[in-house]
TrEMBL record:
This is Putative ABC transport system permease protein. The keyword Repeat does not apply. It comes from Lapillicoccus jejuensis. InterPro entries: ABC3_permease_C, Macrolide_Exporter_MacB. It comes from the Bacteria. GO terms for molecular function: transmembrane transporter activity. Keywords: Cell membrane, Membrane, Transmembrane, Transmembrane helix. It is found in: Cell membrane. Residues 257-377, 698-815 form the ABC3 transporter permease C-terminal domain. The chain crosses the membrane at residues 16-36, 253-280, 301-327, 347-367, 400-418, 424-449, 478-499, 690-719, 740-765, 785-805. Belongs to the ABC-4 integral membrane protein family. PANTHER family: ABC TRANSPORTER PERMEASE YTRF, MEMBRANE COMPONENT OF TRANSPORTER-RELATED.
Amino acid sequence: MLQVLLGTLRTSSRRYVATTLAIVLGVAFATVTLVLSGTLASSVRERVAGDVGGYAAVVVPGEGFGGNAVPAGVVDAVRRLPGVAAVVPVASTAVQVHGAAMAWTDARTWRPTPAVRLVSGAAPTTAEQVVVSTSVAARADLRPGRPLEITDSTGAPRRLTVSGVAVPGDGSPGTLWGTGAALATWSGTSDLTQVLVTAAPGQDGGAVLVAVTAAVARVGHGADVPAAEVRSGAEEADRLTTQALQGSDALTMFLLAFAAVALFVSVLVIGNTFAILVAARRRQVALLRCVGATRGQVLRSVVAESLVVGVAGSLLGVGLGVALAAVVSRVVGGSGPLPLQSLSVPAIAVGLPLLAGTLVTVLAALLPARRATRVTPLSALRPDDTATGTSPVRAGRVRVAVAVLLVVVGVAALAYGVRTASILVALPGGVLSALGLLLGAVVLVPPAVRLLGAVPRRVGGVSGDLAVENAVRNPARAAAAASALVVGVTLITMMSVAASSAQAGVLDELDAHFPVDAQVSAAPGALTPTVVDQVARTDGVAATVTLSTASLVLGRGEPQVVTGVPTTVGTVLRSAATTPYAVVRPGLVVVDASLAPALGLTEGARTTLGALPVTVHLVKEPPAPVLAAASDLERAGAQPRTGTLLLRLTDADTPGPTIDRLGRALAGVDGVDVGGAAPQRAELQQVVQVVLLVVTGLLLVAVAIALVGVGNTLALSVLERQRESALLRALGLTRGQLRGSLALEAALLAGVAVVVGVAAGIGYGWAGAQALLGAQLDVPLVVPWGRLLLVALVALAAGVAAAWLPSRRAARVHPALALAQE
C-alpha cells in the first residue's frame, strides 16, 4: 500500500494543484496575520523600551490613588539622591493651534525619543520656541522659522516661533513640543506626568530604584498631593507597550476570524476534491480490494494521501505568508498607525497555521476516505457507477431533517437576538442557520440551477441543455462547489449591508443630536461682523446663521445666559423635525429639563424672560440651556451679541478642506472652536469605507479559494466525462459548444451562489447591525445595490474564468482516442 500511495502521489500530482492552492491561501492568510501581530508587538516594544527601558526608575502618577500628576517635590528629592546621574521631568497639557482647524491638541515636554524624530529644524531651546508635528505643520502651513499662535489651557493667547517639525511615532500623544518652562507656562501649573531617573555609571539600578521609591514616599507622606508610583524602566516599558498595543489583540482575533473563514471554505473545496478523486479511482480501489487490501488499508492510504498534501500545502502557505508579511513590513516600515520596523516570526506563527492546514486537510478527506472503504470489489468492478454504500433516500431525508432543524432553531435565535438587541444571542443563531443552509444545499442547489438554467436552455441551445444537466447530475458535487462560493458572497454582502445600515443609523442619530454641519464658537465679543462675513464667504460654506446671547432673568431665578435663535435658522438645519432650534418661536422659551427644577419651572408654565411674558417648553439636552427667539431678546430689553455661528456646508460628507479653510479664516480669533456634525460624519464615513475595503479584501481570499474549488470540480469532472464528451463530439458537438457548456455550467453554479449569498447576506447583515446597535439607535435596512452588483458581476466573471482551463482540456481530447477502451 505504501508503494501504491507513492505511485498515486507521483502520477496524480496535477490533480492536487487546486487542492494545494486552497490550502496555501488559507494557511498564508493565518500566517500573515500572526507574523504581522508579532512584528507589531516587537516593533512597539523596541520603540518604547529603547527609551524608557534604559532608565533605572520611572515616577508616574499613582493610578491606585486617583492622582493625575507627580508631586512637585519629587524632582528635587530624587535629584539629591546618591547614585542618580540625571532626572528628566516630563509635563503635558492641551492647547489650541490657530490656523489648524482650532482643535485642542496635546503638547508635551520636548524629549528626543525613538518615537519622536525631527525631520527639519532644531529642538526648542527657549519658552518661545516650539516643535510641531507633521500633521499640524501641513494643516497650518508651518515650517521652521515661521510664527505660530496658540491659545493655552489657561485661555491666554501666545505667539511662538516654530523651531522644528517632528514625526510623532506610535503611542506618542504629542502634536506640539516645548521646553519644560514653556509647558509650565502653557498649563499654568508645575504638575508633571512623568519623571525619568538615570543611574550614575557603576551604580546598581536596583539600589537606585529602592532609593527613589523611598524618596517619593517621603515626599508624599502627609502631604495633600497626588500619590505617585515608582517602577523600573523595564516595568514601565512593559506597561507602555501594553497600552500602545491596546486593541491589537482584538485586531488579531478579527483577522484570524477571516482566516478561519478561509480555512472553512478550504474544507469544502478539499472535501469535494477528495470525493471526486476517490470516485475517479473506484475501480483501482476495487482491484486493490480484490488482491487482498483491507478496508483499513484503503482508509489509511487516502488519509495518508491527504496528510502529505496537507503538509506540503501548509508548508508552502507558511512560506508564502512569511514572505508577504516581510513585504508588508518593509512597505509600511516605521510610518503609519501600525509601526512594523523589524520582522518578527514567533513560533506560533509557523506552528499554528501548519497544524491547522494539515488538520483541516485530513479532516476534509475523512468522509471521502470512509466512502471509499464502503465500496465492495465486485460492485465497483461493474461497468456502471450505480452502486452506493448507503441508501441515498434515507441519507437525503436525514440531511434535510437536520438542515431544517438547524435553520428553524437558528432563525428563531437570530430573531430573538434582533428583538432584544443581543448580539450574543443573534450570532450563534446566525451561525446555526448558516450551517443549516449549507447542509441543505444538496437539496436547494439543483432546483435553483434548473430555475436559473431556463435562460441558458432557451438561448444556449445544446450547450445550455448540457450545462444544466451536467450541473445537476451530481447534487452533492454541485452543492459542494456552490457552497464554498456562497460563504464568501454571503460574508461580503453581510458586511456591506451591516456597515451601510449601521452608518445610516448613526448618521440619523448625528443629525438628530447635531442638526448643523458645523458650529463656530469663540470668546465673548470675538465674533465681530468682519469675522462673520469672512466665515460666510469661505469656500464650501453654503449658509450661515448667527446665534446671539444675552444674560436675562428667567422667572424668579438668577440671570441665565439665553441663546437667541433667528427665524432663518431653518436654512442651516439638516434635521429640523428633531432639533429644539426648530421649536423656538416668539413667546416660547426652550429650557433644559435638568435645569427646570432649580428654576421652579414646569412644562407649559407661564413665566417672564426679563420683563417679557413667555411660555416654557422643557427639552432634554438642548443645544444650549435656554433658547429663545432672537426678537424676544430685544423685546426683553437685552443687548445681545454674537455668540455662535451655525453653518451648512456644501461638502458635509467630506468637510476636511472646508474645515481647514475655516481654520485659516479664523486665525487670530480668541478662543475659537469649530465643531458640529460634519467632522464626525466625515470621520464615520471614512472609517466605514476603510473597514469595508479591508473586510472586502480579506473576504476576497475566501472567494478566490471558492473559485479554485469551482475550477477544480469542473477539471475533475471533465476527466470523468471524457468518454461522454468524446461521444458528443462524435455525434457532431463542436469544440466551441463543448467549451460553452462548461462555461455555462460554471456560470450557473456561480449564479446560484451569488443569488443565495446576496439574499442570505442582506438578512444576516441587517440582523447583525440591529442586534449590535438596536438598543442605542434605530437601524434602517440599507442595501448598497451598486456594491453588491459589482460583487455579483465579479463572482460570475471569475466563475466563468475558472472554467477556461477545464474547457480547453476537454476540447483537446480527440473523439476516437477518448472512446478507446481502457
